[in-house]
Amino acid sequence: MTIWQQIKAGTIPPRLTVADVYALTEAGLLAENERFDLIDGEIVPMAAARSSDHERVKQRLGHLLNLSLPRALGVFVAAEIAFAPADLHEPDLAVWSAEIGSQEVRGPDLLLVIEVAVSSIGYDLRVKAPRYATFGVRDYWVVDAIRKTIRVHRAPVQGAYSGVEEYEAHDRVTALLLPEVSVCLEEIDGPPVRRW
């Protein structure tokens, strides 16, 4: 039974807290592979299947991060991050101190957050960016896996990023808080491919 069917049947309430999500998952009422964001207590479903472009770029970025960073920092893939009591997000990649558990990490603890987008680019830019800014994420990248661009969001101020730049596949982008992380999409995934 899907989460929506469970809400309709009354086995899961229509609005949840992060604590509810953890308890429902532990009780087996929510599948661990159920993908959704929790925004102000509302469940927002994420795509169950991801494109091969998305997965390839995410894997290559994750590999580069793992090679570049010291062991004291963790590279987390699709980790659930509780930003507030009613806000839970699963960025594609996130970096924070390996000493902080995923249920304890908060926005300012995150050294880099990356969303890889194919079909979700509008959501990642218009919904997630302001949420991440609100919760103090200082370096948020949206990587367009098709166009091979990186939209970098920095300097969060009152729910918005005051510094936003877009870089092309051949450009080198260095993480704000992790100078050892330098990414050129063309080097790790080739130039953009025309699809028409």
UniProtKB/TrEMBL annotation:
GO terms for molecular function: endonuclease activity. This is Uma2 family endonuclease. SUPFAM superfamilies: Restriction endonuclease-like (SSF52980). PANTHER family: SLR1083 PROTEIN. Keywords: Endonuclease, Hydrolase, Nuclease. Residues 31-182 form the Putative restriction endonuclease domain. InterPro entries: Nuclease_put_TT1808 (IPR012296), Restrct_endonuc-II-like (IPR011335), Uma2 (IPR008538). It comes from the Bacteria.
